[in-house]
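Hey L., structure's done. Input below.
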Amino acid sequence: MGSNTRKVKVRDLAIGGGAPVSVQSMCATRTRDIDATLGQIADLEKKGADLIRIAVDNPSDVAALAEIRKATRARLVVDLQENFPLADAVAPHVDKIRYNPGHLHHLEKEKPIRDKVAWLVSLAKAHGLALRVGVNCGSVAPEFLKRYPGDQLRAIVESAVWHCGLLDEFHFSNYVVSLKDSDPQKVVACNQEFSKRRPDVPIHLGVTEAGLPPDGVLKTRVAFEKLLPLGIGDTIRVSLTLANAEKSEEITWGRRILEDIREGRFVSVPDFGKGLNIISCPSCSRVENADFVELAKQVKAMTAYAGGHRLTIAVMGCRVNGPGETDDADLGLWCGPSTVTLKRKSMQVGLFRYNEVLPALKKELDQLIARR
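Output:
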């Protein structure tokens, strides 16, 4: 495996250009908890992580990141999400920055997107960093959704291609792109189309919100087994809903899937479009209540009786993924610090405590099944 894209460098790690496919994960600890985060970084490295991503949400996280950088030589990637203005404070302490094109409009609304990207590029050049343009199904830039109404897949691809054009215009080539969805078939479609349009750009592969194992592993394999043998994909993440102590399983599964594909061991996987599909985001430092992981497990167990119905239930653990990435699900749970918002598509059904939401979810599920 390995593609014929250009080669991108994350410090001493090569991505693309025929280099081995690298494997990464993301810390699920709170970044400001320095000891816990360093412990998880060490565990991920021990399991073979090539890159480790950390979320930075505020100045306290930046201060903690500076201390973390002093204590580890791990290759660190920062995930800025909505807070791109923190990039200048973050840049000295990391090797790569991921920005989400769909989140650049949240802050400094008067500033054009082009200027924001130009500023990020200037920081990357000054500090010798790589960038990832991370396009996500639940947070596609509004401009592209309006431009391609009813065609989210095209909006995802066009957004990624447009940002590649910007980076090229700014004479910056040390970047990779990711196009992620919770549906493995959509991941395949997006990445195949992007690869045709920009065969020179290395691709970060992943199925976002793949959910709990083993389903999350199977969904990820569906996409990886279709793309990697074609030379599409240069670095991967297996995004699973896991407790903190189990987070390194993402690396274990990533390595195992790569080995199986190399050895020609392909699995027969279910078609997740034909039955009940439960998506849940990977546990990370943005999760606002650790009970989210246990709730995801309870939802999976409670809804097993509906396995023959073509429905999607989304369980999301933070304010970044919660609102947008539950909108397309038949039923969604957006988990906050102490309460869970139950949704039917984009409509809010109610607000419940963690120990009260399951009966309400079952009621909505039964009504949905009865109506169908």
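The chain has twelve helices and 15 strands. The two ends are 44 Å apart (CA to CA).

-- N.
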